Amino acid sequence: MAKAAQFASKLGLIAATVGSAVGLGNIWRFPAEAQANGGAAFVIIYIICVFLLGIPVMLAEFSIGRAGRSDAVGAFKNLGAGKGWWAVGALAILASYLILWFYMVVAGWTFEYLMQSITGALYEPIAGITDEDSLFSAKMHTYIQTAAGPLVNTFIVLALNLVILLFGVQKGIERMSTILMPLLFVLLAVFCVVSLTLPGAADGVAFFLHPDFSKITPAVVLNALGQSFFSLSLGMGILITYASYFPADTKLPRTAMTVSVLDLLVAIMMGLIIFPAVTTFGLENHTLEGAALVFITLPEVFTRMPGTQLWSILFFLLLLVAALTSTLSIAEVSVKFVQDRFKMRRAAACAIVLCPLFLTSGVTALSQGPLSHITICGMTIFDFLDFVATDIFLPLGSIFLCVYMGWFAPAGLLTGQLDNSNGGKPRLISRIIALNVRYVAPVLIALVFITNLL
Ligand code: PHE
Hints:
Blueprint: H1 10-21, H2 24-36, H3 40-68, H4 72-78, H5 86-119, H6 132-145, H7 148-166, H8 168-196, H9 201-209, H10 218-231, H11 238-243, H12 252-280, H13 290-303, H14 308-341, H15 346-365, E1 375-376, E2 379-380, H16 381-408, H17 413-419, H18 428-453
Antiparallel strand pairs: 1-2
Helix pairs in contact: 1-8, 1-12, 1-14, 2-10, 2-12, 2-13, 3-4, 3-10, 3-12, 3-16, 3-17, 3-18, 4-5, 5-7, 5-14, 5-15, 5-16, 6-13, 7-8, 7-14, 7-15, 8-12, 8-14, 9-12, 10-18, 13-14, 14-15, 16-18, 17-18
The protein binds phenylalanine.
């Protein structure tokens, strides 16, 4: 049997894990959500969610992965978890696979916008449309509603993922992340400098962060929690899979801290990039939500800046990098599963996981256009997948994970992994984390989950 795959360097390990965490969630979801839901008040709640719940759940996942040394199902089996606990891993794999169906499509949009920025097509006028909001909105909707564009772009990112994954953990995922993540941080820094030196920067920061505690309702807390878990890639087996590639001497608490802080930093930096630009050009009343923020409002910002095309290229490159390193991590969950469970070669596993996606993501790519008449529970296929995976599977997966770790895992597994020791008295901080995973995290996440369903 081939030697088990491992990340080769500390930097590579962090780059890959941060690459998974930093994605579209940080770039277009966090800034818009924070701005709309109380600014700094939201950010504080979000930070509490990350530290109180996100990091402990991340550590539980890391520990299962590194101790179990296998895919998300195999790890539970290797740990001797009886009574069908492996199903928790299976649920996570299923959730992650469903996410791929739509995340590949969105990654395809970012590729399209990068290409249109390079060719300049994005900034060409459409006859009869004079104001820019309608122009970019028309462009986005025309694109989403056609068949060929979304389909081709989804296939291109899929093929890109396939090629990188075929190179393996070290030469594919790790090497790509080690190149792309520093690039992403450089781009972010450049945008921060540019944006924060715009004349309206102070107004923008105030617009983004002005604290409004009256907006903090249970629904908003729920939002913050869901957003933080999505952003940290929790509950989907990703961190179990990646941690199975961590060397035995990796310090898990420090790794979790680094990943979470960098993820948070990127999210906040995005807000500090977007809103100063928006206020400087007086676009506060334009769509600031989700995909429309980056595909409609930001191109409007770029048209008002000298060097429109350059900024546009750099921004959509940043977006593509963020999306690509996330899709790699999501796909790896299933690749590792097929590889380990069915004792297959990596190439075969990659093919088995990614080829069906050409069909399923292809269908999703068309679900806002030619196939928009197909709805499930009143939602398009795209929205339904997003809902099921992120609002149901992700929190459920995290709850089960904590319950397993806190109540059923071999005694001392978590603290041993946190301390890199086999036995002996755990450190105080590790005991606190273990108590959190046993009593606090599962209860709070369950509360939030149930409130959400009511
Ligand atoms: N964490 C990524 C983001 O913020 C998305 C993601 C979700 C990645 C789930 C992997 C798994 O966009």
